[in-house]
UniProtKB/TrEMBL annotation, chain A:
Alphabetical keyword list: Cell membrane, Membrane, Transmembrane, Transmembrane helix, Transport
Similarity annotation: Belongs to the binding-protein-dependent transport system permease family.
Organism of this sequence: Streptomyces monashensis
Protein name: Sugar ABC transporter permease
GO biological process, one term: transmembrane transport
TrEMBL record, chain B:
Protein keywords: Cell membrane, Lipoprotein, Membrane, Palmitate, Signal
Domain of life: Bacteria
Keyword Lipoprotein carried by entry: yes
Listed name of the protein: Sugar ABC transporter substrate-binding protein
InterPro entries (alphabetical): Bact_solute-bd_prot1, SBP
Signal peptide: 1-24
Length: 301, 438
């Protein structure tokens, strides 16, 4: 009964399978929704535009010229950012890429295993585990940061790369999504057919189920990547060595330099602008995996 | 469906994955070493260029004593206090931390800072009494060594004061008159703004007026935020805002930067570190500003408040408190160290002898027109009133931002805002389990 409900919910969970029912109807543009969406788009894009334009301004121009007038200091800002403490910015960028890339990859793998297991096998405590997971989804990761710190401190793992990677590998939301997606995309018939043909469970998972789950897993990967890339509190509590800082934390130290030192606004803004670029690139590259969805069904019903 | 062994395996694998974080906790032990031999210390600080100053130690006195210090640069502010306390909970706080004076009682009441009175030796005489007293919290213990201070001063546009025929106010009464005169002559300009987003400024102004917000006696705290002195300060600024002769917009915003840069605002009540802020906020008006002592409440007085400033403290988690205290004392009293701190870190030293030495013989670049900038600053620093911080300054500050923020915006009664600040602070202290006397 619950699995039926889940099946229905599946398409909404981050993917857009083609549920075309008959030919598309030509409709007039609905004015109110369109305007609402446009306002929403402007609301979200305006700050981005601000960052892009502000990053081209020199410190001199930043507060004195018109807000949306591009400045002349972009190359100088990049040079200054490069020069700041021997290019520590790029160390932070590398760290962010490591935390987000490796973390999201591992997290996706764990989510795929667990989600598939939860969807395919029946075992005692399955529903309990799933309910605990659901509770985990509702729990904001922020409140877990301090307990996680105390835990990792007991293992002497704080202020290490692992201290930031480990807590992010297990993502309740990722497992939840993987379970739902696996339940929707991997039909029980296919798994059963694999068993009939004598394939091992591992083989069924890697060769049959996993390819079917790829669009969902791409979603999990992207979610996790963005979440880790933007994460502030966990690395803030875990790390004290600024050579291990991710971008979020590094830029924060540029902003909060104590009362007798002015904040390095131009560096922070330029750094913030450059920090968004990898995310945009990632989305553009990975986007095409989502369209696989239409082709990856195994059984037509 | 039947249970196969393999399925069981998957189940187990899943529970292992779920328990991964728990398992990670099962490591063990501290690796704290004691006794003589090479010592390595970690130091959390936000001062820019501190790594260069610490290099001096590691290559000089530290090498002789085999004490190596590693800088881990942090972001400043209340968040760092939280981070230190979290680390302290796990007994993992670094050996040395930089802490603002108002954060010391919070850290001490959480047992995070060690008493280093036995280890730092006789350095009390190198600091002004009002500064030193902040690191002892009025006890016999010493919880930190003062590093930098922020004596408050009055900054103004010398050229525009001349243009509008204004004189530099020496009392707050004159200050109000100056604000009114300016408004009459140039209605679109303001003398300054009352910023409700900087509690440190308000605390400094109250301190100048003689307020002692937190005092402790006999194991009980007394909170006097809503006292006569502070009420006087609140009523003064609230009156000016209500009258409309000064602005009510917050500081440190792009609009505020612009107002300073274009001369829409003519003055700024700030502290000794203002030149650095002005250099980024108002780059076009370099050389047009001048510094004067803070206006006084009565013509016969000569006191100032402080805004900012920090100290170096040793944590109770440190396994090498003596070595750490030795470094803290060196960092803040040694001539070369202080010179490097001033040059690379841009700090204004707490050590009185350093305030006129080397790095401070010339005025800051932005104030090149005022040759005696640092001589005057040192004189002003001597007049700093004692301050009295308590264990929940952050709560009082948050309450200030909320209450005064809306009061300044609506030009409403500042006295009510002050009352709220007092009530919030007392309520929080009681909640935390402190005994508070009325």
């Amino acid at each position: 009964m619950s699995s039926l409900a889940l099946r229905k919910a599946a398409p909404a969970a981050g993917t857009t399978p083609g549920t075309a029912q008959g030919p598309p109807l030509r409709r007039r543009i609905a004015l109110v929704p369109t305007v609402t969406l446009l306002i929403g788009a402007i609301y979200t894009l305006l700050p981005v535009a601000w960052v892009v334009i502000a990053s081209t301004k020199s410190g001199h121009e930043l507060f004195s010229t018109f807000t949306f007038l591009p400045g002349t200091g972009f190359t100088q800002n990049i040079k200054d950012l490069n020069a700041y403490r021997g290019g520590v910015y790029w160390t932070w960028m590398g760290n962010s890429a490591l935390y987000a890339g490796l973390g999201a990859l591992l997290s996706t793998a764990v989510s795929a295993f667990s989600g598939y297991a939860l969807a395919t096998y029946r075992f005692r405590g399955r529903e309990t585990i799933f309910n605990v997971l659901l509770a985990g989804v509702l729990m904001p990761p922020v409140i877990l940061a301090v307990p996680q710190y105390l835990l990792l401190a007991k293992a002497n793992l704080t202020d290490s790369y692992l201290s930031v990677l480990l807590p992010q590998i297990l993502s309740p939301y990722g497992v939840y999504l993987a379970r739902i997606y696996s339940a929707a995309a991997v039909p029980a018939d296919v798994v059963e057919a694999g068993r009939m043909d004598g394939a091992s469970e591992w083989r069924i998972f890697t060769r049959i189920a996993l390819p079917m789950m790829i669009p969902g897993m791409v979603t999990v990967f992207l979610f996790q990547f963005v979440a880790i890339w933007n994460n502030f509190l966990l690395p803030f509590i875990m790390l004290s060595d600024d050579e291990k800082f991710p971008l979020t934390l590094g830029l924060y130290t540029l902003l909060e330099q104590g009362s007798n030192t002015p904040a390095l606004y131009t560096l922070v803004i330029t750094g913030g602008f450059l920090a968004v670029l990898p995310l945009i690139a990632l989305f553009l590259v990975v986007q095409r995996f989502w369209s696989l969805d239409l082709l990856s069904g195994a059984v037509k019903s | 469906m039947p249970h196969t062994k393999r399925r069981r395996l998957v189940t187990t694998a899943l529970s292992v994955a779920l328990g991964a974080t728990t398992l990670a906790a099962c490591g063990s032990g501290d690796d704290s070493t004691s006794g003589s031999g090479p010592v390595s210390l970690t130091y959390w600080t936000w001062t820019p260029g501190m790594d260069k100053v610490v290099d001096l130690w590691n290559k000089g006195p530290g090498r002789k004593d085999r004490i190596t210090v590693t800088v881990k640069k942090q972001a400043s502010g209340d968040t760092l206090v939280t981070k230190i306390l979290t680390a302290h909970k796990a007994k993992k706080a670094p050996d040395l931390v930089q802490a603002e004076y108002q954060a010391l009682p919070t850290l001490v009441s959480n047992d995070a800072l060690a008493d280093i009175s036995q280890q730092v030796g006789d350095i009390k005489g190198k600091f002004a009494d009002g500064v030193w007293q902040q690191t002892t919290l009025g006890t016999k213990a010493v919880y930190a060594v003062p590093q930098d201070i922020g004596p408050m001063m009055f900054y103004y546009r010398a050229d525009l004061f001349e243009k509008y025929g204004l004189t530099v106010p020496t009392t707050w009464e004159q200050f109000a008159q100056t604000a009114r005169q300016l408004k009459k002559k140039a209605p679109d300009k303001d003398l300054t703004t009352f910023s409700a987003n900087d509690s440190g400024l308000f605390a400094g102004l109250a301190q100048q007026a003689g307020a002692r917000w937190w005092t402790a006696s006999g194991g009980k705290w007394k909170v006097a935020i809503d006292d006569t002195a502070t009420r006087k300060v609140a009523a003064f600024w609230g009156g000016l805002v209500k009258e409309g002769v000064i602005d009510n917009q917050p500081m440190y915003t792009p609009a505020w930067n612009k107002a300073l840069d274009t001369g829409k605002q003519l003055a700024w009540v700030s502290a000794v570190w203002a030149p650095g802020t002005l250099a980024t906020a108002a780059p076009d008006t370099k050389g047009k500003w001048a510094m004067a002592p803070l206006p006084q409440w009565s013509a016969t007085e000569d006191v100032t408040g402080s805004w900012g400033g920090s100290s170096t403290a040793v944590t109770t988690d440190s396994a090498h408190k003596e070595a750490a205290a030795k470094f803290a004392a060196w960092l803040n009293t040694d001539h070369d160290a202080l010179n490097a701190l001033a040059k690379d870190g841009g700090i204004y030293p707490a050590s009185t002898s350093a305030q006129l030495s080397g790095a401070f013989s010339n005025p800051p670049d932005y104030f090149s027109n005022q040759a005696d900038f640092y001589t005057r600053a040192a004189d002003i620093a001597k007049t700093t009133a004692p301050s009295a911080w308590g264990p929940n300054v952050n709560v009082a500050y948050t309450s200030f931002n909320d209450a005064f923020g809306s009061a300044a915006k609506n030009k409403s009664d500042f006295a009510a805002a002050l009352k709220k600040m007092q009530d919030d602070t007392v309520a929080d202290m009681k909640k935390q389990g402190f005994e508070v006397s009325r």
